[in-house]
Amino acid sequence: MASVAEILVVKIGGSTLGSHDTTLADIVALQRHGLRPLVVHGGGALISEWLARHNVPTRFERGLRVTDEESLKVVVAVLAGIVNKEIVGSLAGLGGRAIGLSGADAGILRACVLDPKLGFVGEITGVETASLLSLLEDGVIPVIAPIALQWEGEKSTAQLLNINADMAAGTIAAALSARRLVFLTDVSGVRGTNGGIASHLPPPDVGRLIESGVIEGGMIPKVQACLAAAQAGCQCVIMDGRKEHALLDFVEGRAAGTIVG
Q1: 116, burial (CB in 10 Å: exposed 0-12, middle 13-18, buried 19+)
Q2: What residues contact residue 108 under an 8 Å CB cut-off, 6+ apart?
Q3: DSSP label of 105
Q4: Which stretches of the chain are assigned E, i.e. beta strand?
C-alpha cells in the first residue's frame, strides 16, 4: 500500500480554481514525483447559484448550510456531479489519472446527523480507508465530494448527508495518516493577534483567537480541521491558492501561509 509519508491531502474550493489556476497542474506534477495526492473539494458558491436558479431558499447557521430535502438534491447534484467531474476532467486533461467519488461511494464517509435543526447536515463518524489507499497505490488521484451516508450503529441507511468540506478534508487526512494537509483558500493565511498573517498557530492560540473573534466564519472549520489532522501527525497549512504554483512551493519548502498545529 501507499506509504503514509507520501500522502498529500489537498482541499480546494471554487474561489481558488479558474482558468489561471495552477493547482491541478501542481497535483499532477507532484504525483509524477512520487507523492500520492488526494483532493477534497467544496462548491458552496455554485450550490447557492443553483439553489437560486431553482427558487430553493437557503440559509446558514453557525456557518453551515441548513439542508432540507429539496436543497439536499441540489447539493448532491452540484458537488458529486458538476464540480467533481469538472475537476476529474481537468486532471485528465493535464495527464493525470483521477477518479471522482463522493463520500457515499463504497461507504468512504460514515456520518450521523450533526444537529436536527440543520437538516441533512452530517458529522463524520468514520472513514473507510482501504479503498482510498488502494486507489492511491494504483497511481490514481481520488477526488472526493463531501457527501456521506448516514449510519445508525453498524448499519448504513439510504440517507445522504451534506458534510462541511473542510472537516471532511481534515478527517480524511487524519484517517490516512497523511504527511501533509493543505487548504488552498482565497486569503494569504490566518490572522494572528497582531492582525497580520501568522506563520504558525499552535493549538492554544487557535482557541483564543476563535473566542476573541479574530478567527471567524469559514476560517473556523479550516483551523479546527487542521488541529484534528495535526494530532494524527499531519503537517497542516492554510495558504493562498491563487498564487501561481502555490502547492508546489509549499511541498518544496518555499511557500508562505499559516502552519496550524
Answers
A1: exposed
A2: 101, 102, 127, 128, 131, 132, 144
A3: G
A4: 7-12, 36-41, 60-61, 64-65, 98-102, 109-113, 122-127, 141-145, 147-152, 155-162, 180-185, 200-201, 235-240, 258-260
Residue 181 to residue 189: CA distance in whole angstroms = 14
What count of other Cβ atoms lies within 10 Å of the Cβ of residue 98? 25
Residue 139: which domain range?
4-260
pLDDT tens digits, 220-243 = 889 999 999 999 999 999 998 888
The total of structural domains in the chain comes to 1
What is the SS3 assignment for 214?
coil
CA 234, chain centre distance (Å): 14
Neighbours of 49 (CB within 10 A): 13
pTM above 0.85, yes or no: yes
Q: pLDDT for 115-163, tens place per residue?
A: 999 999 999 999 999 999 999 999 999 999 999 999 988 888 999 999 9
- DSSP lists the bridge partners of residue 8 as 37, 180
Nearest partner of 45 among 82, 9, 70, 20, judged by Cα: 82
CA neighbor of 79 nearest in space, from 48, 106, 56: 48
Q: Which residue has the cell 497549512?
A: 237
